[in-house]
Amino acid sequence: MNWKIACIQMDISFGNPEVNYKNAKAMLSRAAEDSPDVVILPELWTTGYDLTRLDEIADENAQETLSFLKKCAKQFKFHIIGGSVASKTDEGVFNTLLVIDKNGEEIKQYDKLHLFKLMDEHHFLQPGNKDGFFSLDDQLCAGFICYDIRFPEWIRTHTSKGAKVIFVTAEWPKPRLAHWRSLLISRAIENQAYVVGVNRSGSDPKNEFAGHSMIIDPWGEVLAEAGDQEQILQGEIELKKVDEVRKLIPVFQDRRTEFYK
Ligand SMILES: NC(=O)CCC(=O)C(=O)O
């Protein structure tokens, strides 16, 4: 199976969901012109990192964003990895990745497991406690949020159970662009998996963001990479390549887990 991928590398208006819904709709509609199978949005794309105003602007149980994404998925007939949204629940606000299939059905919610202290997440958000697995077209995938990619053991937990495509949604600042690129490429090579990383462009009051969304194959080849401006990055992935690479170098069979304590 092949998937055409479209990464929505959008700028995000700080603390202004209305503007962001409008911009996302326009970009999703533009992406639809090339009939992609899977479309991905960046982290916290409705609010940006306006964490001090989350009481006001976070989405109650992600309901408004879910309804927006379901409508878009049905209208444009593609699966959406809906980036993440600040979701206000009875247990606090979570940074939640949403996955909707092309029929407009909700497939998955994943709460960011590792909160990023350098951007104050721990003061305003609750950490998740569930896995990132989901399936689209019967293909096992896993979704992660930004800082999560610094924890190879967390990604491995998913690929060692069969995940073939790793989706990463991010707001990754420019000063650490080299880390973003190296970490994504490393996660692809060591897990012999496709990695699709979608970052935002633009800036907020505290950070300038790197862009450079990337699509990387299971051999570590960069199939497509964006620049630092708003754009739709496209690429095609061939899922059987994951099995081919895993057969050629059987990393998963060669693990000596009894020594990894
Ligand atoms: N939004 C984030 O989690 C940013 C993570 C980051 O910048 C890093 O260096 O890690």
Automatic annotation (TrEMBL):
<dbReference type="Pfam" id="PF00795">
    <property type="entry name" value="CN_hydrolase"/>
</dbReference>
<protein>
    <submittedName>
        <fullName>Amidohydrolase</fullName>
    </submittedName>
</protein>
<dbReference type="InterPro" id="IPR003010">
    <property type="entry name" value="C-N_Hydrolase"/>
</dbReference>
<feature type="domain" description="CN hydrolase">
    <location>
        <begin position="3"/>
        <end position="239"/>
    </location>
</feature>
<dbReference type="InterPro" id="IPR036526">
    <property type="entry name" value="C-N_Hydrolase_sf"/>
</dbReference>
<comment type="similarity">
    <text>Belongs to the carbon-nitrogen hydrolase superfamily. NIT1/NIT2 family.</text>
</comment>
